[in-house]
Design a protein that fits this description.
This protein is α/β, with parallel strands linked by helices. Helices cover about 45% and strands about 15% of the residues. This is SDR family NAD(P)-dependent oxidoreductase.
């Protein structure tokens, strides 16, 4: 990872920070983007590296995606690895009661945001002699159904199809594209979903989710980051177009 130029969307979130930490200690230069300036500032202070850059952007707005890509090109000199990671969980509700504004938010961030990232990073990677690697954060929800979170499940299925098409388009340019598909991860997003599935009894919901995982625990942020690190690295140079669960056997 030494001297690799890396962009992480959703970079101030739990997985994004864990990933940035792993990259920085290995000598990469990293740009993290996220929606809130305060979260980016906190991440910058926590990680404390002069090779870490931040940029406030809403990935659901194409103009802002174009701006963070231009900023990365200016500060890093290009992009070798792109973690197309930003996502939102939405709410827990039956499909016939789901608020359309929330539905639109999930689709705009989780699908359009991923597409805009591909649209603007691809031309930058095509300029590289060695191509690049793009990792899209999907989910086990992209491989199976779950009731009452239809928009989230839909979005995570959609980006798998997006990845497969992008991998085929990227191959002539040595641009690799893969997805990472985590099971429940022990972080803020799952606290939100636990409370949504069992209001006032999130701890009990957590136990239920854990029982659905053969290894009987949630993934840690680091579990996911380490797989993402591998897929971004040259060690995975012959891997593209693949779906990669990090799920403790949940989809087995």
């Amino acid at each position: 990872m030494k001297n690799k130029r890396v962009v992480i969307t959703g970079g101030s979130g739990a997985i994004g920070r864990a990933l940035a930490k792993e990259l920085l200690v290995r000598g990469a230069s990293v740009l993290i983007t996220d929606l809130r300036e305060e979260d980016l500032k906190n991440a910058k202070e926590e990680l404390g590296s002069d090779k870490l850059y931040t940029f406030k952007a809403d990935v659901s707005q194409e103009k802002e995606v174009a701006k963070y890509v231009a900023f990365a090109k200016e500060k890093l000199g290009g992009i070798d690895i792109f973690y197309n990671n930003a996502g939102v969980e939405g709410k827990v509700a039956p499909l016939d009661e789901y608020l359309l504004d929330t539905f639109d938010q999930v689709i705009n961030v989780n699908i359009k945001g991923v597409y805009y990232g591909l649209r603007h990073v691809f031309p930058v990677m095509k300029e590289n002699k060695d191509g690049g690697s793009i990792i899209i954060t999907s989910s086990v929800a992209g491989m199976m159904g779950t009731p009452n979170i239809l928009p989230y499940v839909t979005s995570k299925h959609a980006v798998i199809g997006m990845m497969k098409s992008a991998a085929l388009e990227g191959a002539p340019h040595n641009i690799r594209v893969n997805t990472v598909n985590p099971s429940p991860v022990d972080n803020r997003m799952m606290r939100s979903l636990e409370e949504g599935f069992a209001p006032g009894a999130g701890a009990e919901a957590k136990k239920g989710f854990e029982q659905s995982i053969p290894l009987q625990r949630y993934a840690s942020n680091e579990d996911v980051a380490k797989l993402m690190l591998f897929l971004g690295s040259d060690d995975s140079s012959f891997i593209t177009g693949t779906v990669n669960p990090v799920d403790g056997g949940m989809t087995a």
